[in-house]
Write a structure and sequence with these properties.
It is flat, with a radius of gyration of 20 Å. A two-stranded antiparallel sheet has the order 1-2. The protein has one domain. Helix content is 78%, strand content 2%. It is mainly alpha-helical. Helix 1 packs antiparallel against helix 3 and helix 3 runs antiparallel to helix 4. About 14% of the residues have low confidence. Strand 1 and strand 2 form a beta hairpin.
Length: 174
């Protein structure tokens, strides 16, 4: 289940890269593209919103838009490959009779696509990072650290709630 969630997250991030970067670069309104919802982009949800906190110049926004446009076709291709690989994995796992080599081959294909997607995301992040001034890069690192701390805190809170629910559940009597 965790692996499925991670794969879904990778597809969501890739889709966000395609839509979020261009929307951010074209529209500087708060709250995401055209003022609706959180911004999303390289580094996951909120990354382009984080760029908003850096006060990019018009030229930088245009360069971000160009970078995301340049990567759009590759990302769409990778997303298509990801979906096909996920479908092949699902079919291999559900196949009757069980075929271990088919499952292993499907997983290898899926891992390869995930790696390609991660490389493309990292490359776009690096390209965007290279557009920033030294001051903006410092501020970005600080904003990312703050976002990570909030995410870690939310994860801990979720774990505590899960533990509390488990403690409240009645134990079966022997």
């Amino acid at each position: 289940m965790i692996r499925r969630t991670n794969r879904f997250g990778a597809v969501a991030v890739a889709l966000a890269l395609i839509a979020g970067g261009a929307a951010y670069a074209q529209d500087a309104q708060p709250g995401g593209p055209r003022g609706r919802g959180a911004g999303v982009g390289p580094g996951g949800p909120g990354a382009f919103m984080t760029l908003r906190g850096l006060d990019l110049s018009d030229a930088q926004r245009e360069q971000v838009r160009q970078l995301t446009e340049q990567n759009r076709q590759q990302m769409q291709s990778l997303i298509g490959r990801m979906r096909a690989a996920q479908d092949a994995r699902r079919k291999a796992v559900e196949a009757v009779p069980f075929n271990e080599s088919q499952v292993r081959d499907a997983m290898k294909d899926l891992a390869e696509v995930e790696a390609d997607l991660a490389v493309a995301e990292a490359r776009l992040q690096a390209d965007v990072y290279g557009l920033l001034t030294a001051d903006q890069q410092q501020r970005l690192q600080k904003l990312r650290a703050e976002r990570e701390a909030r995410a870690k805190e939310r994860a801990q809170q979720q774990q505590q709630r899960q533990q509390q629910r488990q403690q409240r559940q009645p134990r079966p009597q022997a």
